[in-house]
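Structure, all two chains, one model.
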Amino acid sequence: MAIPKKALAFLKQTGELSSFTGRFFSEGFRPPYEFGEFIRQCYLIGNKSLPLVGTTAFIMGMVLTIQLRPALISYGVESELPFIVADAIIREIGPVITALIFAGKIGSGMGAELGSMKVTEQIDAMEVSGTNPFKFLVVTRVLAATLMLPLLVLLADSISIIGSFIGLNIKGVMSFRLFMDDIFQYLDFTDIFPPLIKTFFFGFSVGMVGCFKGYFSDKGTEGVGRSANSAVVVSSMLIFLIDLIAVQITDLLGFN
Amino acid sequence: MPTKEKPYKSDEVVIDVRDLSISFGSHVVLDGFNLKLHKGEDMVVLGKSGSGKSVLIKCLIGLLRPDSGQINVLGQSMDSLKQDTLDHIRARVGFLFQSNALYDSMTVRENLEFPLRRHWTRMDQHQADDLVMEALKNVGLEETVDMMPAELSGGMRKRIALARTLILKPEIILYDEPTTGLDPITGREITDLMVDIAEKYQTSSLIISHDMKCVQHTAENIAVLLNGKCHAMGTYEEMLSSEDPFIRQFFQ
């Protein structure tokens, strides 16, 4: 039986992405290091996504609280609302929503930027200037995305909790101190660390896919557009897959 | 360039290409191509679009690996070169890209400093500034030093790209269609600049072009590329009087 063309193309892409990732590990940790460019990318990636991540996190926290409140009142556990919302944010909503926003903002940006650099021969120009473009462009961006996303998630979690506090005080009354006490009475390290660890993988996959799509972009403006678009689609899909694997692991380890 | 005497010209071969073949899938681009560029010589490779001219110069600088054949640049064989030796050769060979390849995210100054910082790592800011200004002065665009490439016109971008190529004072300059996409006046300015630069820095040039005005002003010798092979070789005048129907098409 012949393999359908689409399946073959998917397998080919998967193979190429795997060898691109392999190249990251084989070249990325060998000197000379592009430390200056790495710091610049950290600043650009972190700084560029902060307003968007902050706004969405604030809204998510507020909306979740307002929506959950009636259900918790009917069960008579309204006092548990701060912890339930905070736990949901820290374990799942914060990391996943932030990673998806990050994929939309940074992943597509990497796909488009590297794609247009490839089309306008800037990557070739870099190579003839005695620079390894893979190290300069790919390794720095992937590392920066891997390190910046967890920081953004920590910030987003905190902003979401503030949003939740404000959401709770729209209809009810609760002091900030009582609100925080309620959260930290139940919250422990197993609530915070496993979700934080998975965000490193989320960031890595967004960086890797964005750079891969841009680096192997087709010629022409259409090719660049396609790179940016598929960078977001593939990395969003990977975020959910990683999330699924992460929850199985934490479940096996008894952290859920 | 073709009319003037060049005291720096010699019989020393700086680029030697033998039996170069390269194909992409089933499409054969170069099929046993031969070429010799001497020190101080300015040669044009003439051919139709898609005939493999750009592929040829990308092979010369190591951006593409040929399937078979020998390439010697400045006495070094380009196959199986170690990365640092390859970088050393690349510092001595300038490459002007067809699309200019200026880094969009950097200012003109940063664009020009990029190859300097990469090849000559032990350089202080003062020296780098002097070299940047000298390169910009050569192309008459000192005032653009802190501008972004997007703010420049097509001709200015080409000049800045040429300045970036010149900043390392290369011995050979490879031009990939230097006047394509420019109006005739700007094209002529770039051609004159190429002639001036070759004289000032005593470079050898390999120019890929099908703009006959540019070819006329820059070429001492012309190599005609057809079906992946060197179809003919000669001076501009020889080509102009050629009876070959393919060559005649360029001059009509």
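Chain B has a mean pLDDT of 87.
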